[in-house]
Amino acid sequence: MAALPAPPVTAEAKRAAASLVAGCKVNLSLRITGRREDGYHTLESVFWPLPGPCDTLTVTRAAKEGLRFSCSDETLESPGNLVVKAYNAFAAATSFAPGLAVFLDKHIPYGAGLGGGSSNAAALLLYLNALAREEGAPSLDGAALGKLGARLGADVPFFFQNTPCLVRGIGDVLEPLPPDAAHRFAGLHLVLVCPKVHVATAWAFAAWDEKHPAYTLTNRVEKDSSPLVRGIRIQNDLSHVVFERYPELKKTLALLHDFDADAASMSGSGASLFGLYSDADNAGKAARFFLDTGELVFHHIL
């Protein structure tokens, strides 16, 4: 899977609106490996990009310097939105602050563990960097852009690459999966279910800390019951604490298994869940079942 290219900025594009599509990701695995003295958690995770659900950022040039941001969900129109923070961070780093009106058409559920906010930020940063280069303004090289993105959110640099990755550290160390590992998943069906539940990432990690007050790498007890699917162990260390608070998510996970999933798990800190299926018929039955119950469902072939 090729890295996400920077959107081209032509003379016509400067006068017209540019449409930036921001996809999402799932964590095929998420293993907490430690907790640093500063409170940040270290982890190992496999990130896999998905084309849907996706958001669209419509960017229109404006005469006045600065950003005017709006969103299809008005509750997300705040200075804390990662789109706004991305614009401000890029302007601070480069002194390039073009006049932009950005409308975010939001379809990736927030609080779902799909990285929607990070994907939005990455899309705008790539656009700004390409625009700066086109206009001969100061821009950032790949390393500097990656560091800037990481300061906004641990998932942002992943969306610059947009290819299956093994993620370590606090989410800032990315290693593309070897081609043979990624190819082993080719043809596997992924059914993604997005329940109408929002799980705060900060709460999930805090709840995990309460359950593991003396956590170290040496006292971790491994659970070998996690299924191994084509060389990747499908597990999520946060699922236990999330399921305690949101038992309906555990029921959804069980239903994914009922359709003979090879494995099923939670993405990120939740609330989205996914099932992996070798059998296309089983995947189709699972997707139709959840659609019939009114859930937001996406069926992908990896």
Automatic annotation (TrEMBL):
It catalyses: 4-CDP-2-C-methyl-D-erythritol + ATP = 4-CDP-2-C-methyl-D-erythritol 2-phosphate + ADP + H(+). Keywords: ATP-binding, Isoprene biosynthesis, Kinase, Nucleotide-binding, Transferase. Its EC number is 2.7.1.148. The active site is at K25, D155. ATP binds at P109, Y110, G111, A112, G113, L114, G115, G116, G117, S118, S119. Residues 233-291 form the GHMP kinase C-terminal domain. One of its GO terms (biological process) is terpenoid biosynthetic process. Residues 81-160 form the GHMP kinase N-terminal domain. Pathway: Isoprenoid biosynthesis; isopentenyl diphosphate biosynthesis via DXP pathway; isopentenyl diphosphate from 1-deoxy-D-xylulose 5-phosphate: step 3/6. Gene3D superfamilies: 3.30.230.10, GHMP kinase, C-terminal domain. Belongs to the GHMP kinase family. IspE subfamily. Catalyzes the phosphorylation of the position 2 hydroxy group of 4-diphosphocytidyl-2C-methyl-D-erythritol. HAMAP family: IspE. This is 4-diphosphocytidyl-2-C-methyl-D-erythritol kinase.
